[in-house]
Structures are given as C-alpha cells and as structure tokens.
Amino acid sequence: MSPLSLMPYLWFSTCCIVTAGIRTAQFTVHCGCSWLLCADVVCENSIKKVVKEVEEIVGDKGLNCLINNAGINVVASLEEVTAETMLTIYETNTVAQLMVTKAFLPLLRKAAQLSTGMGCHRAAIINMSSLAASMQLVQANEMFLKVYPYRIAKTALNMITRCLAADLKSDGILCISLHPGWLQTDMGGNMAPMQVQEAIPGILSVMDRLGEKENGSFLDWQGETLPW
Ligand SMILES: NC(=O)c1ccc[n+]([C@@H]2O[C@H](COP(=O)([O-])OP(=O)(O)OC[C@H]3O[C@@H](n4cnc5c(N)ncnc54)[C@H](OP(=O)(O)O)[C@@H]3O)[C@@H](O)[C@H]2O)c1
User: Which residue segment(s) compose the domain that 171 sits in?
Assistant: First the structure.
C-alpha cells in the first residue's frame, strides 16, 4: 500500500442498530481520532442529528470528505420488480445521498474555504456507485439484469455526481462516483473475487490522487475511468 499524503486527523463512521426492521440512532462511540455515530440516511431527523454531532466536533475546520457509502440491494429481475421495491431502493441509494450531501454542505463549504485546489485535502464528496450503473456496459454485465432497482438507482446517483460536480465546482468542492470493486460483503456475497481489505488500499490511493481533472468522473477502485 502506498503511503497516503493526506491522513485525516478525525474519522467519522456511521452505523445503525436495527431492531425488528426499525433503525434506531442511540449511541456515539469515540476512540482516539475515530468516531462511530448513528445515522439512518433515509430519516431527516437522523441526518440533522449526525450533522450537528459532526459540527460540534470539527468546529470551524469543517468537513473535508463525505463518503456516501450506505446502500441496499434486492434481487429483482424484470419479472420480480415492483413499484414498491423500486421506490425503496431509490430512497436509500439515491435520494438519501442527495439529502445527506445537502445537510453536510455547510461543513464541506467551511473546509473548502480554508484551502485551495481540489481534492480530499480540501472538500470532496465520494458517491459509492457501481459498475452495474454503467449504461454502456449493460450488455457486458448481464448478471446485473437481476437487479433492476439497484442499477437504476445507482445510475441516477451518477447523475447526482455530475450535477454536484458542476454545481459545487465554484465552491472548490469536488464530487466523483466510485465503484469499489466486487467485494465480499453482505451485499457483494461470498462469490465476489475480492475481500474488502484488498480493495481498500486502491480506494484510498484513488481518493488521495483526486484533483480538478477528476471532478465529476466515474472511477473504479484502481483509478480507471468507467463509461457512464
Ligand atoms: N460489495 C460490492 O461488491 C459492491 C460493488 C459495487 C458497489 N458497492 C457499493 O458500496 C457500498 C457499500 O456496500 P457493501 O458491499 O459494504 O454493502 P453492505 O455490506 O450491504 O453494507 C451496506 C451498508 O449500508 C448501510 N445502510 C443501509 N441502509 C442504510 C440506512 N438507511 N441508513 C444508514 N446506513 C444504511 C448498512 O448499514 P446496516 O449494516 O446498519 O444495515 C451497511 O453498513 C454500497 O453503496 C454499494 O452499493 C458494493
């Protein structure tokens, strides 16, 4: 793993306790420079709460990097897909990313005002997208025909990336879509060729190298540009 030039001085991660299908936001864990906060990205109050918590910790320094990582998937082929599934996946994988980003914008703007150039050293939004979102690669990846709602929601997320990249450029805030690789996670399953720890150095190195040229791009975990 190549050493990172930008080591964050504070890390925030979020998670939820899910009881009987209901997400609850009840705890905060703090250890050294890492904070584990509770957030349900489809709940407006939960988003407000987590933004306030982060704001209290970072103060005037703002937030340098927001990673919109939360996502859900269900198997839904053309025969299986329903309006309800489409809307549920769209809410979590697309609408939530835009609302979370809007809520964190004041903190991202604060950080951007304190630096120059473009990238994670200043202010950046990383939207976790997927190869499944690529319209040009639909025929090359027929396995994704089984996940209509997921791939459509991620394609819409890619449009959010493009809009934010254009809209926030003048604020010095960069935005990209990132495909993390097919990974062995709850979502990726155990057929995935890579473990999370194999992809992380690549993902961090891509984030480390982001600059103005990459604003609004769709990259994979190795830094390769993916077709929209
Ligand atoms: N794994 C892959 O091969 C792969 C490939 C391409 C793209 N991606 C993308 O990478 C990202 C991470 O995926 P993953 O593989 O790590 O999936 P995962 O193992 O299923 O994890 C998804 C994460 O999203 C969180 N989440 C879901 N709904 C949420 C909500 N309403 N509020 C807050 N958090 C919520 C989950 O929290 P809980 O655990 O609390 O439910 C979980 O931590 C996703 O955006 C996914 O689409 C993954």
Answer: 42-220
